[in-house]
Amino acid sequence: METAQQKIERAKARREVGLFKVEPKLEGIPEQLPRNTLGLPASVLTAREIELTENYDVIQLLDILKSRKVSVEEVTRAFLRRAAVAQAATNCLVELMWDQAIERAKYLDSLPEPRGAFFGLPISTKEHHGMVGDNVITTASIIAWVDRKHGSNVMYDDLWEEGCVFYARTTQPQTIMHLETVSNLYGRTDNPYNRDLTPGGSSGGESALVAMRGSLLGIGGDIGGSIRCPSAFVGIYGFKPSVKRITVAGQTGFMAGRETIFSTPGPMTVDRKAMELLMRVILSKKPWRKDPAIIPMPWTPHKFTKPLKIAVQWWDGVVMPHPPITRALKEVVAACQKAGMQVIDWDCTNLDHKKSWDLISALYWPDGGREALDAMNNVDDTVLPLSKWIIEQPTVKDLTQAELWKLTLERDAYRAAYAKAWNATDSGNDDEIDVILCPASFGAATPHEQSKYWGYTSHWNLVDYPGAVFPVTTVDVAKDPKDLSYKPINEQDQFIYDMYDPEVYAGAPVGLQLVGRRLQEEKVLAALDLVEQAMGRS
Amino acid sequence: METAQQKIERAKARREVGLFKVEPKLEGIPEQLPRNTLGLPASVLTAREIELTENYDVIQLLDILKSRKVSVEEVTRAFLRRAAVAQAATNCLVELMWDQAIERAKYLDSLPEPRGAFFGLPISTKEHHGMVGDNVITTASIIAWVDRKHGSNVMYDDLWEEGCVFYARTTQPQTIMHLETVSNLYGRTDNPYNRDLTPGGSSGGESALVAMRGSLLGIGGDIGGSIRCPSAFVGIYGFKPSVKRITVAGQTGFMAGRETIFSTPGPMTVDRKAMELLMRVILSKKPWRKDPAIIPMPWTPHKFTKPLKIAVQWWDGVVMPHPPITRALKEVVAACQKAGMQVIDWDCTNLDHKKSWDLISALYWPDGGREALDAMNNVDDTVLPLSKWIIEQPTVKDLTQAELWKLTLERDAYRAAYAKAWNATDSGNDDEIDVILCPASFGAATPHEQSKYWGYTSHWNLVDYPGAVFPVTTVDVAKDPKDLSYKPINEQDQFIYDMYDPEVYAGAPVGLQLVGRRLQEEKVLAALDLVEQAMGRS
Known about the structure:
The structure is a homodimer.
Chain A: H1 4-20, H2 40-44, H3 47-54, H4 58-66, H5 72-90, E1 93-96, H6 98-110, E2 122-126, H7 154-161, E3 165-170, E4 182-183, E5 187-188, H8 204-211, E6 217-222, H9 228-234, E7 237-240, E8 264-269, H10 272-284, E9 309-312, H11 323-338, E10 342-345, H12 353-364, H13 370-377, H14 385-391, H15 401-423, E11 435-439, H16 455-463, E12 467-474, H17 491-499, H18 502-505, E13 509-515, H19 521-534
Parallel strand pairs in A: 2-3, 2-6, 9-10, 9-11
Antiparallel strand pairs in A: 1-3, 4-5, 6-8, 7-8, 7-12, 11-13, 12-13
């Protein structure tokens, strides 16, 4: 019988196979990594590699690929090597697909004409989503699945058809249910801004990789914040659509078939416009024809005909955000107001976000966590503290069918009440708010093992509203002192309050979130364009 | 303690209150009803009442109401009296809302201008859906709920806002899960074409009432055929949209909160065009703003740019339809071909419709039927044979969460396989079939208690495809002899085969069904327009 340790070593050795192929070998990575590893690529990569990975946004890179000013292979090799540097810096990879990516690049270069919306673009992917091809192992960072073969991922098949290059598969935490990224199989992923902080989770391999520009466009997944939290924690863009807009078919994970609450994939990227591009291309493939759970809504860009009306959620009534978050909100609000937008407050006092968490935490584990716990315990996959924390939320229980129905009814009543609050922003002149501006987390990237408040993201999963995260600022010790007069209102609030010390977070990115009504993906991204323009961005 | 019998008598007495108010009293209803009761209104109603209830389709009636050539009150009184006749003939009502309807009519007549898309139109409703207003009892034909107050039905609130008159609430069977309409609370509803036959179920009160023209437009609900079966059984139109297109919020029924399979309301009407009208008006109310479970898809009429491509499902591979159904299919196919449409076969051999039933029957009762059985047994509401039959399907069991997930995964795999078969009708020229033409039942209206094969409707609930039923012909003893050479292929097929005798069904209506892909409601109704035009209808 192979022990858990032997399985772990085998998985890590398998990962080394791809990393060992990196050519030329990486040189210049220090034995002892600095706290901030963002500078590493500059000392390891060639000038040409730096140019290819830093000088273009996604759309520009696609332009030069399609014009064939650069070969797919050259671009692919640059991102492969940069991803390997990111791995050395942050431990963000489960697999570097060296041979497959170069084979794919050569094939694309051999085509008489470039073909597909993503021709030649290296796209990184969260490992548990699976991959195209028949002979792929997908572990989901669980020891029990160390040799698990998966079927096809419908969305990745579509991206493949559009000419992309898959080259890097990224880490996720045990159970894929932490806002942190750590597993017994692959260890811990660090934040490149500061290795003492988490890059967030569960798509924390993606966030670390994209922050290092080891990828310009990655695919994460989100059921409680897993795209948005890590995007905010590393200062990139991330977008969680409403569920059933794009397909999860082909992913692996616990509790397949559960319908209480769904995850959705979405883009994580250095480039705001790439979010819209990904959505548009994916929906142009009519995924509902293959996965009939998907709602057949083609991508229809939204045009605003009057100034944006934004509500600001300064806090959720449960946990007060850290000072840099509040400052970021103020800065964005000021910019929006200056640009002529109408900004009102989104008062959560009567919206009971505490209830939102009580509901969603129960909905995550309708079997009380039994399947996940059994799968870990059966192979000595030690249940990690954050896995334990989320499964042991006080609401979690193995439900009878009648209890399950009661819970889904409460969820639906909560959603209806939230919709009613949104409707109430309409003064009778067809002027309801377009979006809510809100935190993406209570703070900047947290020290490891401290991501124990999900409310600023999970709430939008519960109501199933699309949310886009965008970078705003960084923590500034001078501007963001601790508010010593604040009196926490509950235990969670105290925990979060105590966590803040500007020195700990100094220089860490601060992202915010823009949220729209269910299935208004186009509107949210169009609103983000306007907000960023108001912020002086292009 | 009040006994079950006392509760039943109380419910029936309550029903009599509304019927007793009918003014003038109904005269001319024979002590011994004829087998076919369709002629009864002619001998009871005034010429003017006959004119108002027979000379107009829904859109024409709305025209004269809006032009105020007739008062809402006169129209309402005519339909109230005709509904009372239908009740005497078929036992189709739970409540005749005499006072409320006339009060509403007077109010609408008092408005300076007609207001709303349904101004003055009497709309009948399935009782368990509830009603507008605060002081309404909704029994769902269950003794346990004989005094149950309900909240608001969101869709009915919208119809009310559009100016309709609610006046008649119709019967449904015990558990609302028979394709027959019988309960201990209100007894059995008969088919007006032939009292020995069922008007179908579970919206059998609606079908009997609409067939009698006691209503031109009613609202039914469908989770296994409950709009389409009764519509076909009485020769009217019925439309089941995909779920989550229009709201069920506010309905009562067992297993509220269950998500394995959903019901949907839909129109039942004398008038093909009224189906589209109802959908259009309901969606113009943006129900997704109040019920966020609804998909925000405005009604967008479909225009065909090339001749229809139709697949015909001659049978489902499990049970051979009775001869009149096959003849009806042939007649419609001939008309479509003559009109230049392309018709191909929909071969179910490899699509395993037996599996479809095994899945959906289990999905109906994820608690093994416990909630429903307890609710009946606790108050001596004798479990009727068809309730017992459906709850005791061999697949039904009280599921653990893990078993539930396994089942929903199988359901999703089945749906994906079905979508794949539909995709495969595309020859590569963007020419997949537009719709499937298929039976709405294995036969015409069945003798009471014999509706024990749901496959021709429930299958489309499982895959969640919209289906419209339309009248085609009637059973003709000469044209529809029993096929004595047919050898049934399984027990169910034998049961259905043995049931057929042309004499039993003589003169009964035969409807067929047109089905489209999920959420293609507009396309199905547009296709039905073309099919009926091919049949020589306007």
